[in-house]
Structures
1.
Amino acid sequence: MAATWPSTAPGRGWWSWRATCRCGGTSRTWCWGGIGTQIRAGLHAGEVELRGDDVGGIAVNIAARIMATAGAGEIVVSRTVRDLVAGSDVVLEDRGSQPLRGLEGEWELFGVVSR
């Protein structure tokens, strides 16, 4: 199950909701229909506020900050997402603890290697 829509907030681009984190290493092609466009993605799990046709809240802000650490063609996830996919076939590499702009402390981040 998935739903995708454009966000009205600057810098947030397109949001994609999935029942699982299965998009994994293939999302660079599959999620965009194989048109050769490289994307970067940041994933976090948390409570999201629905605001009309848009979303907001701290979880959305955290995901946006995590996305900012990703390079072209990369998917970076929070420790929360790592914990949720434990036991699956998603392979992650440790990116270490990093400060995220506007958030307190350091956040453990992981790059999606493959699935």
2.
Amino acid sequence: MTKEIFALAREHKLSTYDASYLDLAMKKGIPIATLDNSLISAANQSNVSIMLGNEDELMSNFYCRQEIAEPSASLDRRSRAAFD
């Protein structure tokens, strides 16, 4: 897996972080949410869909999904302790 990520990073001139994100989207067949032009270009070249929207919409969508996946993720440490 690491070799694939490094290869994507080299091929598309991405950071390994962005290449990891692209690799995950490719393997899972899911769209990516980004406003980064280099990552958008690499996604287009790799046939990965891009979740469209402005920054506020993308962040709102991210936080809503995070709340669904893990309701206590956005709570501060003291509040989370109440759920433990």
